[in-house]
Write a structure and sequence with these properties.
The chain is α/β, with parallel strands linked by helices. It has helices at about 35-40, 55-65, 80-90, 110-120, 145-155, 160-165, 190-195; strands at about 5-10, 25-30, 30, 45-50, 70, 95-100, 125-130, 135-145, 170-175.
């Protein structure tokens, strides 16, 4: 289990830019977006968690074939992706967790292996994906022993990912060869555009 990784799919937001709908459940090519993410992430990890604050029954149905658990945030108020990471860190029994958002259905199939190699090489606590000059802070591999650090940050009112990262040993991992893997779908127009591709 020293190499084991739990995948955490972040689906806890309110989907405001899509009209306050649950983005992970919106259909892309006939399947909920979260199902696309599950299919790509499952082969890369040892366990799966979906962090969702709405529609737990719908997520549980989608999670069942992947033996994934569905868990809500530990803190209220839709506190953002760090709240989803916090929930996952406390629920995971593996030494590492990887996070991906539910609205990025084209997750790289080598995401975990590349993040893991960089994390180990750098002796870092957190590895974050980057394409060109753009970091993708919700695509991360994190050591679970940072959970108390994150808990304290959130309890103290912190919400910004960059501010929390600043206190950790972080390595950025270039994915310039796979920029499409980090495209996310935030609006109805974007969803329609991806349907038409």
């Amino acid at each position: 289990m020293t190499d084991a990784v739990t995948g955490i799919i972040l689906a806890g937001g309110q989907g405001r830019r899509m009209g306050t709908v649950d983005k992970g459940l919106q259909l892309l090519h006939g399947k909920p977006m979260v199902e696309h993410v599950l299919e790509r992430l499952a082969p890369q990890v040892d366990a799966l968690i979906i962090n969702a604050n709405q529609n737990p029954e719908a997520y549980a149905t989608l999670a069942e074939p992947f033996a994934a658990r569905v868990i809500p945030d530990r803190i209220g108020g839709f506190a953002g992706p760090l709240a989803g990471l916090q929930a996952g860190l406390f629920a995971a029994s593996t030494p590492l967790v990887v996070t991906v958002p539910c609205d990025s259905p084209f997750v790289a199939t080598d995401l975990v292996s590349r993040l893991r190699a960089a994390l180990d090489d750098a002796g870092a606590e957190l590895a974050v994906a980057k394409t060109f000059a753009q970091p993708h802070p919700v695509f991360t591999l994190v050591r679970t022993d940072v959970r108390e650090n994150l808990n304290a940050f959130l309890v103290g009112g912190g919400r910004k990912i960059d501010a929390w990262y600043a206190a950790l040993r972080v390595v950025e991992v270039q994915f310039d060869d796979e920029p499409e893997a980090f495209e996310n779908i935030n609006t109805r127009d974007e969803l329609t555009g991806f349907e038409e591709r």
